[in-house]
Write a structure and sequence with these properties.
heterodimer; A: six-stranded mixed barrel; 30 helices; B: 119 residues; Arc Repressor Mutant, subunit A; three-stranded antiparallel β-sheet; globular
């Protein structure tokens, strides 16, 4: 407890310093008195005794200082004193302080904003127990349903196989699965009467299907109630229970504490709410729009509104599978390899079993090499991370550079100020201040600046992060990202502040400490400052050179990204990118049966075509460009494909005027028309790539194509060839094959599987779910945005319950593929301009300072007959040299660095000449301008005034 | 000339330098006899050492302040024999323990030094 009393007495004496001082005075008094008394006793006179006592004791003030210094609180007091001095110094030069705080706030704010996102998108672990043990099986590729691929090759698995792994997880602690996509379901909440089915208002929320052990393998504990367990997920069709997200509970159920056990209606079926997950939990996948509901896989027919895909063998590939490694495998490479081997064996056995007995030896060998990599999922599987991870890392680099430039600038300002404060420092040194104390005061001043800048920066970061998140979310109302800084972010910012404070404070501090006491107090101080400062003048110049170098680097980056965005936008997309409105709808959620679709589609087209300002209307499964696609392998009767030949085609089912509405031209044959109906020959339109691939002689029209999906098998007679279009990511330059079929010609029933056992009563024919369209496309004469209200009204007049999921223009639909290109190019441009501005201010400052310093010299030169031009050139040449060195170092640096962003570029090389030339011109122009202003001032120096000044 | 507070031992002696680090031990020893005020301590040390060690207030008072903080001594204001007020320093239990420990260590050290010199 000793240190505690020490602390309290210390603090007490600090706050009652006067009292402590008075007591010390008194003690000294009595000391002198006692000393004098003793001296009188041994025979001195009154007068002599008192004098002797004073002489013996020495300086009373020195003693008091020594006593005070022997206590720890004196250090603290010194710090407080330094802080007061620093605040006074900063307040005395408000312009400098404002610029310093602004550039620091921008620099630190930018860094904090980007780091907040990096922390959430890249760094943060899943909020579950031992997340480092989690692995996904195969890479995350977005999700969807697929057939005819090797198991696991897209990270997707069929239900029966995931179920097998789940039952016998081998070396894993557990293996669980979930549906790779979370479609929106129509939810009706219990109304005031308590019954969910009677509530007329439905809300749409993403729902995810999960295996019974999903939550237990994840190790995720519910916030309320219980999670889904194995008994919920026992038999297909049973287990109508649902776990809801914290967000959904809060937003849609007003955090109802009594929600557990109540029923909500999902797609018309009643589900018991059994649990609420904690706020931080969003599932295994990090998605922009995470699931709000989790239901057992056994409820698939209800949640996905489609016939069962939970088949005992074969079936669609739609599940993501993940496992929890044993604790050894999570830390030990050998054990991990064993788990990997085990999984590969399971998958090879699974594929062999699926392909049956007619496998060729070559194929067998191929199967023997199939491997599905275990991928660490401690931070979840994230498309967001893949999409934005690299951009964010690049942006982090950019903002770090900006902060560095800001630091260089401040260091320069402070150096200049330190030069003007030389006399003050010399005086303090002469009066007995230690150099350490002067360095300390200087560092305290800069740290104070950087901390204040950091606090302002946090505010800027909060606002900036909100904007960035809105950008990333592309208008979704809720996304699982939060601009509020957490403790990691706050620590990061604090560290950054201290680092910057030291970074830009150290050089001036050292310069201050190197000041010699004697030379600067002497009369020649001014001249010493002018002539002796070769090394002192080198540092500011070096800093400016570094700034020029870094600005050049940033400008090159900004130029490359801007041109990438331009290239992406100016590509040939193959369809019209204006005057087209896209509206996604889901008739299944409104309870439509496939047999009702022709009538619905017909009335939608009629009603929408009648709208003013509408040129044509079409329905389709997907718009010309979208993130996910319906696809399958195709075969051409009479064409023998080579082994492993790519026969993969994107499919779209469309109404009659699709090509006209989308603005896709037909290069051969004809588009669909109204005579293509159920009674006529089944027809298809293919794209140029497919035509080239199978019919290189140009004889595609008249041949037929067969789709390897039973419900839309065909054969379809090819009647036309459409232009190639970009159907997905605009960066993909691979040509993809496409097949369009008319919605009106899709069979009403799914053909009965001929391999199914013929015994027993023939099952009722199953309706064909592939007759649904989900996209309304409206080509308008004017701005499509003006048609949105009319479109809503028209759809509501057909059926008020038909949910419109989203309405967007084709322009926005295309831009959505480029958000991160837009983000990175606009932010890099913004930051590089900021950097350039800072560098220009820095150069301006240094040049001005030099001109002021050399006023005498310039005056003498002018008096001796120097021409204006010569003076201008003398000042400018110095800056030009700095520019030349900065560019000389910056160019090779940029050439080296751009290598690392090659992956982010599109349609240009990382060494794009145009961009480099542009960056050079901008940097040079800015430098010249910044140097020219003070140079011009130098030419106006009045020689008489300058000389008299001395 | 700047005065350095942290090297009281070096600065204190005039007739002879006080051996470094021994000032506090000497103060403890002096106070072990009876409570004393600052000048009393200085005088006692000078007298007992026959004037070899002279302790001036510039090192004595900081040392007393440090020792008070460390809990080795405590202080109170009392009347002197001349009826003046003075700050008297008293040895605490902790101070007594410190004195024993420091004395033992000192004895060991000079013993060792003596052996080395005699060898």
């Amino acid at each position: 407890m000793n240190w505690l009393t020490n602390l309290t007495t210390g603090l007490k004496s600090l706050f009652r310093k006067q009292e402590v001082e008075r007591e010390l005075d008194e003690e000294l008094d009595s000391y002198l008195e006692a000393s004098a008394a003793y001296k009188r006793k041994i025979g001195m006179t009154e007068e002599a005794a008192r004098n002797a006592a004073r002489v013996e004791a020495g300086s009373l003030n020195a003693i008091k200082h020594q006593v005070w210094s022997s206590r720890w609180e004196s250090t603290l007091e010194g710090l407080l004193q330094d802080m007061r001095v620093s605040v006074r110094m900063l307040a005395k030069s408000p312009a400098f302080t404002a610029i310093a705080l602004l550039s620091l706030a921008l620099g630190i704010g930018g860094n904090t904003a980007i780091f907040t996102l990096i922390n959430q998108v890249i760094l943060r672990n899943l909020p579950v127990q031992n997340p480092e043990q989690l692995v996904t099986f195969g890479p995350e590729k977005g999700g969807g349903e697929a057939g005819g691929i090797d198991m696991g090759s897209y990270g997707l698995f069929p239900w029966y196989f995931a179920r097998q792994l789940q039952a016998a997880p081998g070396p894993f602690q557990g293996i669980a699965s979930f549906c790779s996509f979370s479609d929106k379901a129509s939810i009706r909440l219990p109304d005031s009467g308590g019954a969910a089915d009677s509530n007329p208002t439905a809300i749409l929320a993403p729902a995810n299907l999960v295996s019974g052990n999903y939550f237990s393998v994840l190790g995720a504990q519910p916030f309320l109630g219980r999670a889904i367990n194995a008994s919920d997920d026992a038999t297909p069709g049973s287990g109508a229970v649902v776990v809801i997200s914290h967000h959904f509970w809060q937003q849609s159920l007003s955090s109802d504490p009594a929600i557990l056990g109540k029923a909500i209606s999902i797609n018309g079926t009643s589900f018991d709410v059994i649990g609420v997950m904690p706020e931080a939990f969003h599932g295994v996948k990090r998605e922009v729009e995470p699931p709000d509901l989790w239901a057992p896989l056994t409820m698939q027919t209800v949640i996905l509104k489609q016939p069962s895909i939970l088949t005992p063998n074969g079936g669609l590939y739609f599940l993501d599978v993940f496992g929890r490694l044993s604790s050894q495998a999570a830390t030990n490479k050998g054990a991990l390899a064993q788990s990997q081997n085990w999984l590969d064996q399971q998958i090879r056995t699974g594929i062999r079993a699926e392909e049956g007995s007619k496998v060729t030896p070559a194929r067998l060998q191929e199967i023997g090499h199939v491997t599905v990599p275990l991928i660490n999922a401690a931070r979840g599987a994230s498309m967001l991370r893949d999409q934005y991870g690299d951009s964010l890392k690049i942006l982090m680099g950019v903002v770090a550079l900006v902060l560095l430039i800001a630091c260089a600038n401040l260091a320069n300002f402070l150096l200049a100020r330190a030069a003007t404060r030389k006399r003050e420092i010399a005086t303090r040194l002469a009066l007995g201040s230690s150099r350490a104390r002067i360095v300390r005061q200087s560092l305290i001043e800069t740290t104070l600046l950087s901390l204040t800048g950091g606090v302002l920066g946090l505010g800027i970061a909060f606002a900036a992060t909100r904007v960035l998140i809105r950008f990333v979310s592309q208008g979704d109302s809720y996304i699982a990202m939060d601009p509020t800084p957490d403790s990691t972010v706050l620590l990061f910012t604090l560290g950054l502040c201290l680092l910057t404070g030291i970074l830009f404070g150290l050089a001036p501090a050292i310069a201050a400490a190197r000041t010699g006491a004697a030379s600067n107090l002497s009369a020649g101080g001014r001249t010493a400052q002018i002539s002796g400062g070769r090394s002192a003048r080198f540092l500011p110049k070096a800093l400016v050179t570094v700034q020029v170098m870094l600005s050049l680097l940033l400008l090159v980056g900004a130029g490359l990204f801007l041109r990438t965005l331009r290239n992406l936008q100016n590509q040939d997309y193959g369809f019209e990118r204006s005057h087209l409105l896209l509206a996604e709808f889901n008739a299944r959620l409104a309870g439509y049966k496939p047999s009702q679709t022709p009538g619905l589609h017909q009335s939608l087209i009629e009603r929408l075509s009648a709208l003013p300002g509408v040129r044509s209307v079409a329905l389709s499964l997907s718009p010309p460009i979208s993130g996910g696609n319906w696809s399958s392998n195709v075969t051409i009767p009479g064409y023998t494909p080579a082994p492993k030949e790519n026969r993969h085609s994107i499919l779209n089912r469309v109404s009659g005027q699709y090509f006209e509405t989308a603005g896709i031209s037909i290069v051969a044959g004809r588009p669909f028309n109204n005579s293509d109906n159920t009674n006529s020959q089944k027809v298809a339109v293919i794209n140029q790539t497919l035509a080239h691939h199978f019919f290189p002689k140009g004889d595609a029209v008249g041949r037929s194509v067969v789709i390897e999906i039973d419900s839309v098998k065909g054969p379809w007679q090819i009647v036309g060839v459409a232009r190639d279009t970009k159907s997905g990511n605009p960066r993909d330059t691979d040509r993809v094959m496409m097949t369009y079929i008319p919605l009106s010609q899709i069979d009403p029933f799914v053909p009965v599987d001929p391999s199914a056992p013929a015994a027993g009563p023939t099952p009722a024919p199953e309706e064909n779910q592939d007759r649904f369209a989900s996209m309304i496309m409206v080509r308008t004469t004017g701005d499509p945005v003006h048609t949105v209200a009319d479109l809503r009204a028209a759809v509501a007049s057909v059926d008020p319950n038909l949910p419109l999921l989203s309405i967007t223009t084709i322009h926005d639909q295309v831009s959505n593929f480029m958000t991160h290109d837009e983000l990175i190019s606009s932010l890099t441009s913004l930051f590089s301009l900021l950097a350039l501005l800072l560098a220009a201010i820095g150069l301006y400052g240094v040049t001005s300072y030099n001109v002021v310093r050399r006023t005498n010299e310039i005056g003498i030169r002018i008096a001796l007959g120097a021409q204006t031009q010569a003076v201008l050139w003398m000042v400018l040449s110095e800056s030009l040299l700095l520019l030349a060195i900065g560019v000389g170092l910056g160019l090779p640096l940029a050439l080296l660095t751009t290598k690392y962003i090659k992956g982010q570029l599109f349609g240009l090389s990382a060494l794009d000449t145009m961009t480099f030339a542009f960056a050079l011109v901008v940097v040079s122009a800015m430098t010249m301008f910044a140097a020219w202003l003070p140079a011009r001032r130098a030419t106006r120096v009045d020689p008489m005034a300058a000389l008299r000044c001395e | 000339m700047p005065i350095r507070a942290d090297e009281a031992g070096q600065y204190g002696a005039q007739s002879s330098d006080l051996v470094q680090g021994t000032l506090e031990m000497l103060i403890l020893k002096t106070l072990a006899l009876e409570p004393m005020h600052g000048y009393g301590v200085a005088l006692r040390i000078e007298q007992i050492s026959n004037g070899v060690f002279r302790v001036n207030p510039g090192s004595l008072l900081p040392a007393l302040s440090r020792m008070e903080r460390a809990g080795h001594v405590k202080s109170e204001w009392r009347a002197t024999e001349n009826n003046r007020r003075a700050k008297y320093y008293l040895l605490t239990a902790r101070g007594r323990k410190a004195l024993t420990a420091e004395t033992e260590q000192w004895q060991r050290q000079i013993g060792a030094i003596a052996r080395i010199l005699e060898a």
